[in-house]
Amino acid sequence: AAREFAKQGVQPGELAIISKESVAPYERPALSKGYLFPQNAARLPGFHTCVGSGGEKLLPEWYTEKGIELILSTEIVKADLASKTLTSAAGATFTYETLLIATGSSTIKLTDFGVQGAEANNILYLRDINDADKLVAAMQAKKDGKAVVVGGGYIGLELSAALKLNNFDVTMVYPEPWCMPRLFTAGIAHFYEGYYASKGITIVKGTVASGFDADANGDVAVVKLKDGRVLDANIVIVGVGGRPLTGLFKGQVDEEKGGLKTDTFFETSVAGVYAIGDVASFPMKLYNEPRRVEHVDHARKSAEQAVKAIKAKESGETVAEYDYLPYFYSRSFDIAWQFYGDNVGESVLFGDNDPAAAKAKFGTYWVKDGKVVGVFLEGGSADENQAIAKVA
Hints:
- By secondary structure, this protein is an alpha/beta fold.
- It has helices at residues 2-7, 60-66, 129-141, 154-165, 186-198, 296-315, 382-391, and strands at 16-18, 69-71, 76-80, 85-88, 93-95, 99-101, 105-107, 123-124, 146-150, 169-174, 202-205, 209-214, 220-225, 230-232, 235-238, 242-244, 255-256, 259-261, 273-275, 280-284, 289-292, 327-332, 335-341, 346-352, 361-368, 371-378.
- Residues 325-392 form the Monodehydroascorbate reductase 3-like C-terminal domain.
- One of its GO terms (molecular function) is monodehydroascorbate reductase (NADH) activity.
C-alpha cells in the first residue's frame, strides 16, 4: 500500500504506518521458507517488502525519503471509527482522515482450547519474525533432535520440510484423511505424502495432539495423541490455522464471512475506512459472490486497489472494479506447485502423481457445470503456470 501511495504521489507527512512489529514491513512467506534454511538463510534487510512480488526493496530509509512515517513497536488496542481516533497500548492517541486496515490474521493456539501442557517451552507457532527467531533458536538448541508438526496444511508442510533440511527427525500429525484438505484432492495429496515419506518424514493421520509432557526444564518432551499413541519431541510446531484480526472494529463496521465487508474498492460500510488482505470480505467478480482470501498475492493486489481508489476519490476519478483470480502457491524441498481459480465441482487428475517419479509433473482440473473453474500444477514451467492461470 505504501509503495502504491508513493506511486500516486503521496506528500510527506500524509501517510503513517502503525505496526506492533519492531521492524519495517517484510515478506511474511520467507519465514517458513528461506528464513529456516540451514545454509545461506534469508535475513532482513534481504526480504523487506516489496521484493517478493519483483518490486523494489523498501528499506526503512525508503519510508523516510518518501516522508512516510513508520510508527513501530506500537500496538493499537482501541479504534473509535466515529471519532477517527486510534489508541495504542502505551496510551498514545492517533487521529486520521482515511484509515486502511491491514491487520492480517492471528495464529490459533492450542492454549486457546486448554490443551493439557500446551504452555510448555518449544511448543512454537509461526506468524511473525519473532516467532521465526524463536524457532531458529530452538532448532539450534535442540540440534538433530525430534520434531513434531501439528497440522497438515500450508505451515505444516512447509515447516516439516524446513525441519528435515535441518536434520531433524520429523513427524507430522493431522486429523484429516490427507494433507492440505482445503485445496488438495486425495490424488494430489497422494504425491506429497509419498514424497515427504521418501524424505524420511513420518505422517500420522486421523488424530490430534491431546496433551504434552515437559521435562524438568519445562521444555516439551512428549506429545500425547488422542488415539493413545505417544511421540517423543524436542520441538513442537503447531500450524492449525489463523483468525482474521477484526476485533478492534467489532460492532463498528459491517461484517461478512468472518471478515470486514467491503465494496470492490475495499471501502467498508464506514466512509473513509478501508480493509485489505486477510480481513477483507470483498465481492469476487469472477464468481459473483463475496469472498475472503488469505494469501500474500491478494494482500498485495487488494492494497494496490484500495490505494488507487483512495486517490481516485480525492481527484473525482474512478478506478476499475477489483477482478481477482485466486492464486496460491507453495515450495518445499525441490518441488513447487501453483493453483489458480476455485477448487469446486469434479476434479480430473492428469500427468504422473507417482511420488517416486524422477521429475514430478502432474496436475488437476476442477470442472463445475461443464466449465473449468480451477487448475493445479506441480512442477510447471513459468509458461505453463501462466497457461493454467489463463485456463482458470
